[in-house]
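Record type: ASSEMBLY
Status: queued
Input:
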Amino acid sequence: MNLTAYRDDAEEFVSSLDREYYRHFAGLQDEFDIETIYERHAELFSRDSVQRLREEGTTQLVEFAVHGFIGRATKEESAELARREAALEIELEGEQLPFRQSAVIQANERDPERRAAIETARLDAAERELDPLLREALERSHALAKELGWPSMRAMCEELSGIDLGALESQTSAFLDSTESTYEEIVSGPLETELGYGFDRFQRADMAYFFRAPSLDGVYPDARLLESLEQTLSGLHLDPPGVILDVDQRPKKTPRAFCAPVRVPDEVYLVIARRGGRDDYETLFHEAGHAQHFAHMPGSLPMEYRYLGDNSITESFAFLFQHLTADPAWLRTRLDIQEPAAIERQFRAVKLVFLRRYAAKLAYELELQAAPAALDPLREVYARRLSDALHIEWPSASWLSDVDPFFYAAAYIRAWALETHVRRLLHERFGELWFEEPEAGEFLIDLWRQGQSMRGDELLRELTGAELDFGALLDDLKLVA
Ligand SMILES: [Zn+2]
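Status: finished
Output:
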C-alpha cells in the first residue's frame, strides 16, 4: 500500500470535512455537505483500505480508516441531523425560538420555571426530530463494528485506541464512590449563590445557568475577554500565525464554542458564540488551548500525528488554558481580582459536577456500546446512572443525543487527569505566574511539536514517569481529607 498517497488523501479529506464543519457551525452557510466529501474520498474507507492498513499502517491511521468506514456508512444521518438541527425551532408560550439558540437563552434565563420550560421544549423537539436519525446511526455503527470482526463497538474502540476503557471506568467509579459523601456539601453553597436554592430544587434545566454563574459576571467583564487572552498568550510568547479568531455573532452559529483545525498548522479557527460572563472566558480559553496546540505542530509531521491520535492530549492543553480562568494568580494578574475565594469555590463545584457527570456517562456508554441485546432498556440505565451521580432527577430523553461517538468522553476523562500533571510541572518549574514566563511557553511548544504521536499515558510516562490515573483529580481538587 502506498502510505504517502494515503496520507495526502486523508489530509485532504479531514481538512475538507473540518472546513465544512467550520462554515456550517459558525453559521456561515446552511449547507452541511459531508456526503460529497465522503464520496470524493471513498477509497480511504473501502474495506480493502481498512484491511491493508490493519496490516501495515500506523495505529492512528487504522483507527481513522475504521472510524471513516463507519462515518461514511452513516453520513446521510449525520448530514441530515445537522440540517434539521439548524432549521429546527422550538415553541415556547406561542413564541418560536431557534433550537440551537435556545440553549444560550436558557443559560441566561433567570426564571427557573422558564428554564425548565425551554429545556422540556428542546428535549421534546430533539426526541421527535433528531432521535430517529441518532438511533439509526447508532444501530448501523453497531452492526458495522461486528461486520469488521469485533464483538462490539466497545471492543473495537478499545483495540483501536489502545485504551483500556474498563480500567478507566474502574477509576471513575472509584472517584464517584470517594466523592459521594462530600459532593452535595461542595456544590450546595455555589448552587445557593447562583440559583437561590440547593439540591431540594436543583434540576438539570438549571445546569447551564449554574455553570454560567451570573453572580460572577462582574468578575468576568465582556470587555476584557479577548484582551485577557491576548495578554496571556503574549506573556507566554505564543503567537503562531495560523490561529484565526471568529467571535462574530451570527443567528445560526452554534452555541458550543469550537476549534476547527482546517489546515494544521496554518489555518486553525477558534470559534466562540458569546453568552456572557464566566462561560465565555472558560470556553474561549479552552478552545484557545486547542488552537495553540494545533498551530504549533510542525507541518512536516505525518498527518496522523497532526489531525488524529489520542485526543486526551489536545483536550489536556485545552483544560490547561481553561483552568487559568479560575487560577488565583491569573485572576490577580489579568483581571485584578484580589479575593478569588468565591470564584475558586464555584469552579471546584462545577468541575466536580462535570467529573461526576462524565464518570456516569462513561459507565453508561460502555453498556450502550457493548452490543446490548436491545437498545430500549438503556434509556433507563442512562437516566439512573446520571441521576445517581448528580443527585437530581435526570431526564432520560437525551439518552441518544448525549452520546459521544467512539468514546470521546474517555478523552475528556483522561485529559482532566493529564492536565493536573502538566499544570503541576508548570508550577514547579516556572512558579505560580508561569503564564507570564516565555520559558513556560517554550516548554509547551516543545510538547506541542510532537503532535499526537503518543497516547496521553505515554506522554505522561515520558514527562514524569507517572501513570495516568483519574484518581489524580481527588488530590487536585482537594477532595480527600
Ligand atoms: Zn476540547
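Annotation: The mean pLDDT is 95.
Annotation: The pocket of zinc ion is lined by residues 286, 290, 315, 318 (CB under 6 Å).
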